[in-house]
């Protein structure tokens, strides 16, 4: 317990006194992002490439392929703000929500990726 408290205080001091939290990942304190790729109708969408992009720098940091059930997991991700870009297996981008994923140091967050309906899809029926 004391060892963990000392570690947290050391990391906090590095963030506050100039080293910067963006450097913390180099110390081995990383987290993960898990979730599922979802079609507009709520069903899972699998076997697509997912690219983890650093929102601050625009750098593509990792790539994963969603399982056939739509599940994915990015490991060893440094703390920061990211978005997930979806690509077909041939490399073309698939429109998706690309909302921010904020990852705290040493944590794993759950974040589902929602695909946008095709631009030529009919609008949803409204109930009068």
Describe this structure in words.
This protein is mostly beta strands and 128 residues long. It has a domain at 29-114: Immunoglobulin-like (Sandwich). It is built from 1 helix and 9 strands; from the N terminus they run αβββββββββ. Strands 2, 3, 5, 6 and 7 form a 5-stranded antiparallel β-sheet that branches. Strands 1, 4, 8 and 9 form a 4-stranded mixed β-sheet that branches. The radius of gyration is 18 Å and the shape is elongated.
Number of strands: 9
What's the story with the biggest beta sheet?
A: 5 strands, antiparallel
| Overall morphology | elongated
Task: Give the helix level as a range of percent.
Answer: 10-25%
Q: Class of the domain at 29-114 in CATH?
A: Mainly Beta
**CATH-level-4 superfamily name of the domain at 29-114:** Immunoglobulins
What is the gyration radius calculated from CA atoms? 18 Å
Instruction: Give me the secondary-structure category.
Output: mainly beta
CATH topology of the domain at 29-114: Immunoglobulin-like
List SSEs in N-to-C order: HEEEEEEEEE
Instruction: Give the strand content.
Output: 35-45%
């Amino acid at each position: 317990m004391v060892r963990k408290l000392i570690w947290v205080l050391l990391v906090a001091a590095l963030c506050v006194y100039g080293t910067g939290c963006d450097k913390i990942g180099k110390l081995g304190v990383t987290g993960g992002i898990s979730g599922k790729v979802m079609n507009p109708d709520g069903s899972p969408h699998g076997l697509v490439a997912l690219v983890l992009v650093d929102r601050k720098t625009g750098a593509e940091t990792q790539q994963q392929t969603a399982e056939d059930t739509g599940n994915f997991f990015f490991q060893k991700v440094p703390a920061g703000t990211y978005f997930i870009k979806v690509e077909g297996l041939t490399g073309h981008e698939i429109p998706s929500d690309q909302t921010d994923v904020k990852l705290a140091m040493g944590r794993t967050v759950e974040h589902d990726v929602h695909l946008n309906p095709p631009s030529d899809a009919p609008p949803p029926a409204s109930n009068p």
